[in-house]
């Protein structure tokens, strides 16, 4: 009478399966720790809104100077009902006009309106001159033609 234990070759089978129960337990504990320790996120944008005042609007509308730059570099200076035309090489006259605008106590708004076909150097000359002389209220208008 003999007892048969294992297989006849004498090799013991090695267990190759990983015990995943402790791994799952550790992962769940870490997940709960992260959920608890992460601060609550607020999805709000902090804005400094203007405070309403009872001040009256300014009594006079602002003065607007329109500088049109034509396709060939010709610059037209429009103020109210008057307009003046400068040739492309007449930088001194533009500088004098912009210096007068910069020297004003309440600077008028300067609207720069370039033509769609104008070379950039003419527009850049006006913008650089205005910046150098201290014109602060300047903007480019007529951008809808570039769409």
What does this structure look like?
A five-stranded mixed β-sheet has the order 3-2-1-4-5, covered by helices on one side. It has helices spanning 21-37, 91-103, 120-133; strands at 64-69, 75-79, 82-86, 109-114, 138-140. It is elongated and about 110 Å long. It has a domain at 64-142: 2-Layer Sandwich (Nucleotidyltransferase, domain 5). The chain is built from three helices and five strands; from the N terminus they run αβββαβαβ. The model has no long low-confidence stretch (mean pLDDT 85). 8% of the residues are buried. Helix 2 (91-103) packs parallel to helix 3. With 147 residues, the protein is α/β, with parallel strands linked by helices.
Indicate the CATH architecture of the domain at 64-142: 2-Layer Sandwich
Uncertain regions spanning at least 5 consecutive residues:
none
User: How is the main sheet built?
Assistant: 5 strands, mixed
Q: Helices and strands: which structural class?
A: alpha/beta
Radius of gyration, whole Å: 38 Å
Binned, the helix content reads 25-40%
Round the mean pLDDT to the nearest integer and report it. 85
Q: Mind telling me the CATH class of the domain at 64-142?
A: Alpha Beta
End-to-end gap: 100 Å
Strand content: 15-25%
| Spatial order of strands in the largest sheet | 3-2-1-4-5
Give the ordered list of helices and strands: HEEEHEHE
Shape: elongated
Put simply, the count of helices is 3
What is the CATH topology assignment of the domain at 64-142?
Answer: Nucleotidyltransferase, domain 5
**Strands, count:** 5
